[in-house]
Structure formats: structure tokens, C-alpha cells
Amino acid sequence: MKGYFGIGVEGVSKAVNVGTLFRTAHAFGASFVFTLRAQYNRREGAHTDTSDTPRSVPTYNFADLESFRLPQGCRLVGIEITDQAIELPSFRHPRQAAYILGAEREGLSADVQSICDYVVKIPTRFSVNLGVAGALIMYDRQLSLGRHAPRPVAEGGPTEAVVVPPFGEPIYKRKQRIRARAAQAGR
User: Fold this and answer.
1) In which order are the strands placed within the sheet that holds 96-101?
2) Fewer beta carbons under 10 A from the terminal one: N or C of the chain?
3) What's residue 170's pLDDT?
4) Taking every annotated instance into account, which residue ranges of this chain make up the domain tRNA/rRNA methyltransferase SpoU type (predicted)?
């Protein structure tokens, strides 16, 4: 899958929720994780982040909105239940994205929503746990941007293999040079 993504939280109060989100992000291959206006206690978060994400994935802690930074070209996608938000099944994920979820009770603040390129909502009857919401977002990203065999019409697993790109298998220049040298040496 081309591109990258990061995921983070704004102002959360429960370190175990952040730990769950970070562990799931690590499992889905996040390029970075972050907190904004949050007092994340890594020791408490380790109860649920058993992969110790901060030791394996770049982790940023932004004290306030003024210090908040993303890589150049990265789109900020807020996750929040609002009337104006795009429903997740209808959303096309940016190739370079950072997803941000709000605090458990307050949600994503209005000033953070205002700097988001997109605000997306998960179509559920009511709000779900922070870690669950993050997992759903990352899973949807993988489904929509990853290369997978097509779903069958009937129930069960795929009946077709993953389609190989029309331009063929990747060409590795180093292997070509080694083969060329071997061919020249054999003459």
C-alpha cells in the first residue's frame, strides 16, 4: 500500500484507551502516533499497549494546537459525530493522512475540527470506545487502499487471486546486474 498514516488523540483522560489505540495503530502499520493536549501516562498506557508502541513507532506529544505539526502533504482527518461529517463508508482516505480522535466525553474540539481537511463519522447509533473507533478507521483504510482479492458474491472467502498489476512483477536492478555479470562470465 502506498502512502502512510498516523493516528492520535486530543485531550483524552484514560491512558488505557490511548494504549489500546497505539497498540492497534502499531499492528496496522502506522508511521507515527501522537497526542494533542493530552497528559498520556505511558506507564498506565502500557497495560493495554503490550507492544510498547513508543519504542517502535515515532510518537509525538503536542502540548497545544500552536505546536501541532504534521509532515508536508499530510491531510488531517478528524473523527467525530457531527451532521456535517462524511460517513466512513463513503469516505476516500487520503494517501498521506493523520487521523485524530477526541476525548472520551467531550469529543474532538471545535478548534481542532476547524483545522481538519475532513471530518468523518462512523455510522453507529451512538459513540463507541476510542480504541474501537480508531480500529474501525484503520481497518477501513486498509480495506479501501490495500490490495486484496475481490469479495465473492456468495458468502465465504475469495475465489479469485489478488490481481497482479498490468505492468508485471517488480524489476530489481541489482538482480539484473548480477544476472548480466553471470552471463558475461559464462561466455
Assistant:
1) 59-62, 32-36, 4-10, 96-101, 75-79, 118-121, 86-87
2) C
3) 64
4) 8-139
CA–CA separation, 107 and 54 (whole Å): 24
Whole-model pTM: value is: 0.82
Is residue 99 within 8 Å of residue 115, measured between CB atoms? no
How far CA 156 is from CA of 143, 148, 162, in Å, comes to: 17, 15, 16
Residue 26 CB neighbours (<10 A) = 19
Instruction: Please state at what angle helix 15-28 crosses helix 130-145, rounded to 10 degrees.
Output: 10
Element (H, E) at 9: strand 4-10
Q: b/e for 101-127, b at 16 or more Cβ within 10 A?
A: bbbeeebbbeebbeebebbbbbeeeeb
Q: Is 43's pLDDT higher than 80?
A: no
Mean pLDDT to the nearest integer, 46-60: 83
Q: Which of 105, 99, 145, 106 is closest to 122 using CA atoms?
A: 99
144 burial class (0-12, 13-18, 19+ CB within 10 angstroms)? middle
How far, in Å, CA of 128 to CA of 122, rounded?
9
Contact 57, 33 (CB under 8 A): yes
